[in-house]
Amino acid sequence: MKRVLCAAIGVATISMCGLAFGADYAPIDCAKPTSAADRTICRNYALGQAEARMATLYGIDMSLVAMGQRGDIGDAQKQWLKTREACGANVGCLTKSYSDRIGQLNKVIEDIASHGPY
Fold first, then answer.
1. Number of other residues whose CB lies within 10 A of the CB of residue 2
2. Which of 9, 64, 75, 91 is the most exposed place for a label (fewest CB within 10 A)?
3. Cis link prior to 27 (omega < 30° from 0)?
4. What is the rounded CA–CA span in Å between residue 34 and residue 57?
5. Alpha-carbon distance 71 to 84, whole Å?
6. How many CB atoms lie within 10 A of CB 111?
7. pLDDT for residue 115
8. Predicted TM-score (pTM) of this structure
9. Is the pLDDT of residue 48 over 90?
10. CA dihedral (13, 59, 4, 68) positive or negative
């Protein structure tokens, strides 16, 4: 199962080279953070890593699923962004928010992998 998951991620990563993340999500530009949450994420190494991981998983998920599911994932991303922004500068809240979203995005990949064979 892990091999299948790794293969799926590898293929998705290669296929998304040059693929934009879409209108639903643009990674934080730490040269111009626009909110308290953005500034906190940019100043905190662990949160920056969580942002990178979440953005990567979001891109992979969007490249692996059918059009209908992309809308659902995009809608969930918009809702998550509201939740993240509500955390403001609270590192604990931001950490939990990223952990929750990363878990949701990982589940999409696990669900795809569970429907093998490949």
1. 7
2. 75
3. no
4. 23
5. 20
6. 12
7. 84
8. 0.77
9. yes
10. negative
**What tokens does 115 get?**
């429907």
The encoded tokens of residue 18 equal 């040059």
Q: Which region among 17-31, 48-62, 81-95 has the lowest average model confidence (pLDDT)?
A: 17-31
Q: Is 20 helix (H, G, I), strand (E, B) or coil?
A: coil
**Burial grade of 91 (CB within 10 A; 0-12, 13-18, 19 or more):** middle
Quickly count helices (H) and strands (E) in the chain.
5, 0
The C-alpha angle with vertex 100 and arms to 78 and 38, in degrees rounded to 5, equals: 55
8 A C-beta contact, residue 94 and residue 87: yes
What is the C-alpha separation between 105 and 114, in angstroms, rounded?
Answer: 15
Question: What is the pLDDT at residue 56?
Answer: 95
Residue 57 in contact with residue 109, Cβ under 8 Å? yes
DSSP letter assigned to residue 117: -
Q: How do residues 6-21 score in pLDDT, each as one tens digit?
A: 444 444 443 443 344 4
Nearest-angstrom CA–CA distance, 95 and 50: 8
